[in-house]
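User: I'm curious whether this sequence folds into something compact or stays loose and floppy. Could you predict its structure so I can see for myself?
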Amino acid sequence: MANEMNTHRIIWRYLPDPTRHAVEQCVGARVRSAVTQPGGFSHGLATRLILDDGRTVFAKAITTDDPLITMYRTEATTAARLPSRVPAPKVLATIETDGWLVMIFEHIPGAHPRIEDPAELSAVLTAVEQMSEALCPSPLHDVPTIDDLYGVKLTGWRRYAEQGPPADLDDWSRRNLDKLADLESDWTASAAGEVLLHTDLRPDNMRMRPDGTVAVVDWAWPCTGAAWVDLVMLTPAIADKGIEPDPILATHPVTRDTDPASINALLCGLTGYWAGTSRQPPPPRAPQLREHRARAEQVTTQWLRRRLGWP
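Assistant: Here's the prediction. I'll summarize afterward.
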């Protein structure tokens, strides 16, 4: 029986019999047990399938009429076409049957990396470097640019400057709202580039392999942009563990030569995005997403304030 601790997720046994049988035919064995995986914010199926021949695979699934289906299709088509040098699990199959889309991946044993552990953080940073090398230039020519994907989303400070800030906005952001809006408007030009980006790097989208290397999963938001973008988007998760990100950015191969003003502009855009979305109702089947965004706003605002030095 499936592990039902992660109650917001679809459970393996809830899939229609024909869909489960199609998966078993595809992998060539019956499913002996299914363990729902914790973490993440989607309500879709994410489960480790233990097969009766001793193998284990990882499956994700969602109904084809679900609002998230486009995101799942994007992940399926992107992950299947990644070069072998990219540190990511192999896609074994994608099935669409009986109103369900099912992705079957190589199973990566282990756990999510612990950013607070120096060795595991080092492995994460190595994976980011490997991605930037393997994905430049982008091997996929049908993905949007970072401006196309995020240009409308990362405009939170400009909206607040035009419409007025929320009553609970912190004092520093309120005092500097016009300056934040101006800085935010600069991020798209400097973040442009030809590298295929993941843009959703965080520990629960990574797995530590038994050999100590990191695999990157959940390629649902690909776009092209500058090589340094993925690491900057990851660093709020690093800061959240009490680790100062600036020494990492100053020495890591993908960011050490990046203009600090460019990094500030993207961080400003991210902070404005979280400031806006954390004050909106969360998706009905992902109530924990609002808390995540509020924490991201808090951590990134504190870090951006240190970097800018504005009173």
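Summary: DSSP finds twelve helices and nine strands in the chain. Residues 22 and 117 are 41 Å apart (CA to CA).
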